Amino acid sequence: MFFPPSPFEKQTFQNQLFYLKRDDLIDKDFSGNKARKFHFFLTHDFPHITRVVSSGSNQSNAMYSLSVLARLKGWEFIYVCDHIPRFLKDNPMGNYKAALENGMKIVESLTREDEVLNWFDAKSLHVNEGGRQKEAEEGIKILANELLVDIQTHSIPNPYLFLPSGTGTTALFLQKHLPFPVFTCNTVGNSAYLQKQWKMVEPELASLPTILESTKKYHYGKLYIELYVLWQYLKDEMGVEFDLVYDPVGWSVLLEHFSSLNGTPIYLHQGGVLGNTSMIQRYARKANML
């Protein structure tokens, strides 16, 4: 299963010119960075594998894409998460609902990695949370090559790339294969957490993305009215729907640093909008913000 190059658009936001790499439009089931991270598993044969095991949050984009991968390959899919809220169990939605419909078996455990080991055997494939592993490099290198073609086609001077990070895997391998700066920000934990994730994947890699710090700290998955408002502004001004968990944090950090960054910005849209359904309902239900 191969994907065509994703669109590359010229955009403006708040009078700032930038380019947008639309990885959200690659494929409805492998939107954004999951099409890149799971390229290796999609395009190679694994004749002895009958099960894929992974872990993460209950609305993970990777969870949904892995459920599609398992369905396509005819594998059992076991997914371990810390907790599933009662409301979500009673009212499945977003990535959680779609993954269940694809046959995912979800297991709750406060010791996720120990539980993963309970399901792992010689016929199992273990995919780390968010696709944080060396195999992700193959697809991300393809993205890097696409970006080089896009930049040449549009004659972009002094480019730099920005993307928000979860595990940071996409940013890590993009910087490895691109000759210009890759900037990112942490959306989970802090900068030290992000650097630790990189060391787990490529311990000897010297050329690393640059982490942009923010004056405000956001806790992963928590609701912030200013982030929802920013997300809505982005949608209204550009006509593009972004992910509601990672992108508002990313845009907030990028806007904070725009004036100090030299060059032509390229923002990588990594998809993940299927999970917006549950996020919007969370804003409406718990915070009374809409």
UniProtKB/TrEMBL annotation:
Annotated InterPro entries: ACCD_DCysDesulf, TrpB-like_PALP_sf
N6-(pyridoxal phosphate)lysine sites (modified residues): K34
Superkingdom in the source lineage: Bacteria
GO MF terms, alphabetically ordered: D-cysteine desulfhydrase activity
UniProt keyword Metal-binding, yes or no: no
Cofactor (UniProt): pyridoxal 5'-phosphate
List of catalytic residues: S60 (nucleophile)
PANTHER family found in the cross-reference section: 1-AMINOCYCLOPROPANE-1-CARBOXYLATE DEAMINASE-RELATED
Name of this protein: 1-aminocyclopropane-1-carboxylate deaminase
Native source organism of the sequence: Sulfurospirillum multivorans (strain DM 12446 / JCM 15788 / NBRC 109480)
